[in-house]
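Hey, weird one. I pasted the TetR family transcriptional regulator sequence into the form twice and got a warning about non-standard characters only the second time. First submission, copied straight from the form history:
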Amino acid sequence: MSASVESGGSRRADAQRNRERILQAARELVHEPGELKLNAVAKACGIGQGTLYRHFPTREDLLAEVYRRDVEDLVAAAPRLLEQHRPPAALAAWFDRVAAYARVKRDVFAAVEAAMWRDLAAHSLGPIGEAVELLLAAGRSDGSLRADAEARDVIVLISWLTRLDDAELDARGPRLFSILVDGLRARA
């Protein structure tokens, strides 16, 4: 293999690592009070602003990707959890992840303009609804979850999460999710 190909492969790997570091730093910093500053993200990653701007030309691009990544991670968790747990337990474990997603959603949506918020919300509703439906369908199939439960029902019920501050989400979230899972269980 030529040195230039190896070098190119190395640069691509470095670029991917930088992108991941940028997203992680932005995910953490978006939660802090005040406007998310791109120079603060670059500083937290230990990279130059030019590197950050090559990956994310605008603050909105970065915030949109932070949100999209959280949606993707949440959606991808559903089938993995079903491989490890029966449907009610998988749904409960998935709800634990929903709480973390709700925090990021609240913070990102607070940081972006209304038009961008609508685009982000439209992007997430379909995939999240599909993940909920996957979990519910597994439970309907094995008889552990209600036959009449629909993904939209669950989404409506969990939509309040982005309205809670962290302390209330920490205090009430686990109990409320438990109540929701219990309400979704099939009755004998």
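That's the output from the first submission. The warning seems to come from a hidden character in my clipboard, not from the data itself. Confidence is low (pLDDT under 50) at residues 1-8.
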